[in-house]
Design brief:
Number of strands: 15
Radius of gyration: 24 Å
Number of helices: 11
Helix content: 25-40%
Largest sheet: 5 strands, mixed
Shape: globular
Length: 336
């Protein structure tokens, strides 16, 4: 009997300690449809990006994390498809409901900011799904009327498409009161904006020296054709799904006035050759050491991959976009 009493006491002590633990946060979740799948968890904390893998069993999952400052926590399935995000701090227990088919269909309790975040995503799901100007518009309107709310910072840094309107993104960030935009969230975003609004981002495209698939050094020059399109990508930027089909299409339909440069920004030459080998490309494929920070590429201030830059023979940038469809429509307008 005494042993049983000691055992029960120990369990109660452990439970009490868990409930009052201020050194970590806890997330309990359910996924619509009750799938049994592996999940990837990621968040920045204390100067490092922390990751872990957990499992949802019949739709239920649980994980713990630790961050001395509140952190944005990303929840992905095992194939890195985003299921949801939340804002957590040590000492909290959050309850999360996710829909695997829709990252905007999310409910969160246990943290006021996270709960407001989930409410905004559900209420504006149509605009956010549409992306581009529609998503940017609803986010900009929210920030304009909630300048003292950290949710404005979270929406700007996670859902606003800065690539299509960097000047507005910069203005919105400055609009948010300092107390509502902690450096733990905005430091990396500030660096991105500096690249996007830098003077070189709109300056003429300069010649690019690159290695071709035969390891020969070649030079791309805008002056060689009336118009050029530079397609920047790497192995992780949906080459097979969007980049390569786009280049094949414009290569088939292009006229003699257009040059196409398929510029790979993979970390090393061998990786680039492996990722592009299935392309059987008849067009100029290029690789530059240094990736996005290579001198010839950094001037373009590429915000993400893939990315498309159209210029004329003087190097003047006529179109900058992360979308192949937008680049394609612009090229069609040049033929008229």
């Amino acid at each position: 009997m005494k042993k049983a009493y000691i055992g029960i006491s120990a369990v109660l002590c452990i439970a009490a300690a868990a409930c009052t633990n201020t050194e970590q946060f806890r997330v309990n979740g359910t996924i619509e449809g009750n799938p049994t799948i592996n999940l990837r968890i990621g968040y920045y904390a204390d100067g490092a990006y922390r990751t872990q893998i957990t499992a949802a069993r019949e739709g239920e999952f649980e994980f713990f994390g630790s961050a001395r400052q509140p952190a944005v926590v990303d929840i992905y399935d095992y194939d890195y498809r985003l299921l949801g995000r939340l804002y957590a701090r040590n000492g909290q227990t959050l309850e999360v409901k996710l829909a695997r088919s829709n990252p905007y269909d999310i409910s969160i309790s246990g943290d006021e900011v996270s709960s407001q975040w989930a409410d905004f995503l559900r209420q504006n799901a149509d605009s956010l799904h549409a992306g581009g100007p529609a998503a940017n518009g609803v986010i900009a309107r929210y920030i304009d009327t909630h300048r003292d709310n950290i949710l404005s910072t979270l929406l700007l840094t996670t859902s606003f498409d800065s690539a299509i309107d960097p000047e507005l993104a910069d203005s919105l960030l400055a609009m948010i009161e300092p107390a509502a935009r902690p450096s733990t969230i905005t430091d990396g975003y500030n660096y991105l904006l500096l690249r996007l609004v830098s003077e070189t981002a709109s300056e003429p495209v300069q010649p690019v020296r690159y290695l071709d698939r035969n390891d020969s050094v070649r030079t791309f020059k805008p002056s060689d054709k009336a118009y050029s399109i530079i397609v920047l990508s790497d192995a992780d930027s949906w080459r097979a799904d969007s980049v390569v089909p786009f280049i094949r299409r414009i290569e088939k339909d292009k006229n003699k006035k257009l040059a196409v440069l398929d510029l790979g920004l993979d970390a090393d030459l061998a990786e680039w050759k492996r990722s592009t080998a299935p392309d059987s490309a008849a067009w100029a494929q290029a690789w530059v050491p240094g990736g996005v920070v290579a001198a010839s590429v950094e001037r373009l201030a590429v915000p993400r991959l893939p990315y498309y830059v159209v210029c004329d023979s003087t190097g003047e940038q006529l179109c900058r976009t992360p979308w192949a469809s937008v680049a394609g429509k612009f090229l069609e307008s040049l033929d008229k």
